[in-house]
Amino acid sequence: MSVFNDGIWFKCGLRQTTDIVAALQRRCHRLWILMPMLVLLLCVGCGPSDDDDNGGGSSSADGDIQVSWSVDCTEQENLNVVFELYAPDNTYLGHSKTWSCSQGSETILNAAAGEDRSLLLLVEDENGQVLYRGLKTGVDVVKGSVVTVDTITAYPFVTDLKAPADATESNALPRLDWDYVRAAVRYTVSIAADEGFETLVLQESLAGPPFTPTGLAPNTTYYWKVSCVDIFATQGADSDTWSFTITSPEVTITFPSDGETFSEYYEIYFTGEAYDDVDGALTETSLVWTSSLDGDLGYGGFLELFGLSIGSHEITLTATNNQGFSGSDSITIEVTAEE
Fold first, then answer.
1. Alpha-carbon span 101 to 116, nearest angstrom
2. Residue 93 contacts residue 85 (beta carbons within 8 Å)
């Protein structure tokens, strides 16, 4: 026997009749006994369901929060707002639905009940990057009730780079500096060898500026950016990307001139100079002379040599600053046999 109810009839293995009550009494009297049980089974679980934290009405274990926010939603198109709820020990409890920034107010449904909650306001761009951040602490969420909190103001959560200026060239390691940001407890500094940050060279989590990176190579252009992190580990959007180039010390051989010829017994004087942005003029052991034929020749800004090997020499003066960056200059001289 099957029961089908489309609001027109019951069919119980009988021929169709319009007198439903009579038919049930004659042939389906057992159905009257089973009907209350069937109705009870169908109604199990028909009560209000627990949706997500912004679904239907509050469950008995949750409460609602009436919120409003203050932020310039016209500064950028397609800004969205989302709220996150945290326990007193900063344990994450859940988040709201995402609303358009321009709405200005909403109701968070089914928030986890409890005292002294923290309500974090995040204003994101269309890619989910956090541009603004606000916080309301001491929120008591009451089971089955609606609590209204004061308007939460969102502040910028993206830093601005300060120094060195974009596209700076220097033969010294840069001292990276940026602005402090309200509510940021850490800053993530990223340095890469390409503007898309696919070749990440260095990434550091710091309490604040400034920062001087190490392990960088001379004659290389690097790109850097900074993002903010709050006490809930919320990462803000990246700052603008700037670049800097580490150059080598400037080195010049002042004598002899490139291409000169000397007799094998001629006493040859070599002079040179080097300059560094940090150390200024480099002297003494910072300057090293070498020959492609005779190897190491000596050091300093002035060198007097006698008896170089006969043949063509590539003479190189290499200068190294106190950060280990080196630059060089080379000339070619010819040493001929005495006739």
1. 26
2. yes
Strand ranges in 105-234 using DSSP code E only, listed in sequence order: 105-112, 114-124, 130-141, 146-148, 152-153, 155-156, 161-163, 168-170, 177-178, 186-192, 200-206, 220-229
Name the region of 296 (left: φ>0; alpha: ψ -120 to 50; beta: rest). Answer: beta
The correct CATH number of 250-336 out of 3.40.50.300, 3.10.20.30, 2.60.40.10, 3.20.20.70 is 2.60.40.10
Kindly report the number of other CB atoms within 10 A of residue 139's CB atom: 20
Q: In this predicted model, what pLDDT tens digit does every residue of 162-216 receive, in sequence order? A: 999 999 999 889 999 999 999 999 999 999 999 999 999 999 999 999 999 999 9
Token pair 């709220």: residue? 83
Provide the CATH number for the domain formed by 62-156 in this structure: 2.60.40
In sequence order, what are the residues at sequence separation of 6 or more whose Cβ sits closer than 8 angstroms to the Cβ of residue 303?
A: 269, 270, 271, 289, 297
Pick the CATH number of 161-246 from 3.90.1150.10, 2.40.50.140, 2.40.10.500, 2.60.40.10: 2.60.40.10
